[in-house]
């Protein structure tokens, strides 16, 4: 059973009845679900995930006023629920995993992930938040939210970046893909430097995967789940297989391996260019990826953002 399914069933079996009985008025102002950090919030959990920060549990989000007034009372009821459910449990919390579930304050929760109690609103605020934190703030599932406060902020995040911010990030990824994959990787290969080759390849893969998420209007998750998450992206679905081949390509001769990887790098760049054209963001197949940056930047309406350093995103 996946963690999200376990969380929902655990809440429906034990949590809902206990919370409604103990807090008949407050219950209509509670948001309940599972979201945030952890592979189970993305639906990526497996048997290996169950050794820590996994098990029967859920989140209860309260407004700041309700949290200060009733938070401890709600926590007592939550902690009184059975630790086991359907053969699973109790949840094993690691030192770093505390506070991910249980009773939480809506404004504090969003501030922890985005720096803002109601999510980023200005272009500067959007640019400050790492993509992986936005991915964590918008993942998972909300089981109930009668008040709608938590879901309203969540929907604001799910609506994705303002287009100017997305365009700036896409331009930055074009520059990074060009620099690391099309320029530095073959130069490092000619020098026969395997460590530099691997570092350049890593930079290209990170930038290329982030580009794929941006073109899908999805936030890139924590690096451990970047590639796994690509499997579910509808746009540029072929990229999943190409990045897998790029990472696993092995040859006895380092130069043959480099040539095979360069071909895969160019195929990924060509696939990206095709999607840039389909979304009417830039045109031109077979170009150096850097050449798309100017066209992308010209589409940005905010002058300050358009003229800021491209590698800042």
What does this structure look like?
By secondary structure, the protein is mainly alpha-helical. The chain has helices spanning 3-22, 39-42, 64-79, 106-114, 123-128, 131-137, 149-158, 163-191, 194-216, 223-230, 238-248, 254-278, 291-298, 303-307; strands at residues 31-34, 59-62, 102-105, 141-144. The chain folds into two domains: 3-158, no CATH class; 163-312. The protein has 14 helices and four strands. The chain has a four-stranded mixed sheet with strand order 3-2-1-4, with helices on both faces. α8 (163-191) packs antiparallel against α9 (194-216), α8 (163-191) packs antiparallel against α13 (291-298) and α11 (238-248) packs antiparallel against α12 (254-278). The longest helix is centred in the middle third of the chain and has 29 residues, at 163-191. The protein is globular and about 70 Å long. The model has no long low-confidence stretch (mean pLDDT 95).
Instruction: Show unreliable segments.
Output: none
Summed up, the helix count is: 14
What is the domain total for the residues?
Answer: 2
Distance between the termini: 38 Å
As a percent range, the share of helical residues equals 55-70%
Rg value: 23 Å
Task: Please state the structural category.
Answer: mainly alpha
Please list the strands of the largest sheet in the order they lie side by side. 3-2-1-4
Chain-wise SSE layout:
Elements: H1 3-22, E1 31-34, H2 39-42, E2 59-62, H3 64-79, E3 102-105, H4 106-114, H5 123-128, H6 131-137, E4 141-144, H7 149-158, H8 163-191, H9 194-216, H10 223-230, H11 238-248, H12 254-278, H13 291-298, H14 303-307
Parallel strand pairs: 2-3
Antiparallel strand pairs: 1-2, 1-4
